[in-house]
Structure formats: structure tokens, C-alpha cells
Amino acid sequence: MLARGLLLVVLVAVLFPGAAGVASAHAGGLSSSASEPRVLGIDPPVPGLEVRVVEFGARMRLDNGTGAPVVVEPLPGSQLSGLPTVAPGTRAYWTDPRITMAAAGSRPGGDRVAWAIPLRAGDRVVTVRGEQYWPTPPPAALWWGAALTALVLPAAAGLIGAGRRWGRVALAFATGVVLLAHLVHVLGSAVVPEDRNIVAMVLSAAGYALLGWPLGAFGIASTLRGRPAGPLLCCAAGGLFAIVIAPVDAFTLVDAVVPFAWGASLDRVLVALTLGGGLGVAAAGMALLRRGTVREESSV
Predict the structure, then answer these.
(1) CA-based angle 278:252:153, to the nearest 5?
(2) pLDDT in tens, 35-80
(3) Considering just the CA atoms, what is the radius of gyration of the chain in Å?
(4) Overall pTM > 0.70
(5) Rounded distance, CA 26 to CA 182, Å?
(6) How far is CA 28 from the centre of its chain?
(7) Cβ-contact 230, 193 below 8 angstroms
(8) Is the peptide bond before 44 cis (omega within 30 degrees of 0)?
(9) What stretches of the chain show up as alpha helix (H) in DSSP?
(10) ∠ at Cα 260 (154, 30), nearest 5°?
């Protein structure tokens, strides 16, 4: 039975890439980072022209409320395409190479690096001035400790409660926590991109979870009914989330900037529950599988 659980994880990960795809760390290909850009101002100010950072630093947004086109100028001597020309009354998004280069450097003294983006608004040359800022990183030991706790609790419950009704309930509950944690992580990531279809963003962030969620749900139902296949399915779902899905999000536990709509700390909790909890569920499922057929008991 243990071998079957591990085999199921491998089969789900290998044989179904077309159905789900590999999940990005967050929706739209966004990922956590050590720094974020800030717009400090436009020099000289242009009435109706607004430039801001969106999506936790992934892109810039320009709203052209002037009466003339606004052109984002490339780097001197660069033939780079993709920088927008924004017609009056419209909006554009782009990833700017000047910000990308600033973010690629190591953390500077003072935690800030200045950058500038030249624009041409009609016949006027203006400059968007900003900085790349490195916030204080989160306490990595705290969040890795949270992931370890999320692993130990269900694993211990599975080992102690193997063969007992309360052990099945603990396994089902822990599996549900992992599924819910990852679902909230996906939804909070999917609403960050501003101009993308929300359904497409949910699919982008979910990836293999489109298989993991129903796999875990069937495992919960079967485990609570006392069926031998229940722990097997829970084990497979926990392994899928912990080994295949969650590792791409692990940098969320150590990076300061997290593209999540409802706060970086909440997302770190969700990632810790998915990563550590998934391993704990896999361990608990294995413990129940080693006991063979799970017995119905009237007492706990």
C-alpha cells in the first residue's frame, strides 16, 4: 500500500502535465522578490499623466490623461521593443528594463537604488524618477519553523492514531487544511494581476492542484467512511502538494515582497501549511496504510 501511494504521486505528476500544467509561484508568472520599485515623482509634472508601480513591482502602469500620446523611451542605443506608446485617454502596462536591472543587483547600502524612466509626452521630454527599495526580510527561521510544525502535528497524529477512528479524522482534517490553504493562496494570487482574466489567473496559479484538490477531497471522504483507499488518496494528495506544487512557493517564506492580495504574512502561513502540512499528511497516510485495513472503532 505504501508503494502504491508513492506511485500515485509520481503518476499524477508525470502523466498529466497537459491537464494542469506546472503552477507558477503566483498567478501570471509573478514571484516573490527581495526588493520592490517605487515611483517618487514625474519631472516636470504633467497634468493628467500618472505612472505607478503595480503587481508588487512586476510591472509599471501609465494612465494618459493628457491630450497627446506618451512614449516610453528605450535605453540609449537599445532596439528593445515592447515599451508602449500610450494614446490619450488610454492605459498601458509594461516591464521596464531599467527597473529589472536595478532589482538584479545585490542589496546596496541604504537599501535603495535610484532609477529613471524617460518619457516623451507630445513634444515634451519628462522623466519618471523612482527607486528600488529592499525591505527588511522576514524572519526565515520563524516561517520554516511554522512549516516544520505543520509537518510534525499531522504526522504525529497519524502515527499515534493509526488504526483508530480519531486517527482517520485527524488525517482527514489535516488533508482539508492543506487543500484549503492552497486554495486561498491561489485565489489571493489570482487577483493581483490587473488586466488579466481572473479564471485564467486561477488556472495559472493552480497548476497540478487542479488534480490535487479533487484527489484530496476524495481521500477525505473515503477516509472518514473507513475505506482503505482513503489514506492512500490522502497520502498521494499530501505528497503531490508538498513535493510537486508547494516547493515553487518556498521563497515566499524568506523574501520580503510577496505578490499576494491579502498580505505577505497570511501567504507565508498558507505556504507553510501547504508545504509542511502536505508532508505531514503524506506521513500520516503512510502510517495508516502500514496498519492495513483501517478498523471502525466505536471509541477514540
Answers:
(1) 30
(2) 999 999 999 999 999 999 999 999 999 999 999 999 999 887 776 6
(3) 24
(4) yes
(5) 11
(6) 10
(7) no
(8) yes
(9) 2-15, 17-20, 97-104, 140-161, 165-190, 198-206, 209-224, 229-239, 264-290
(10) 105
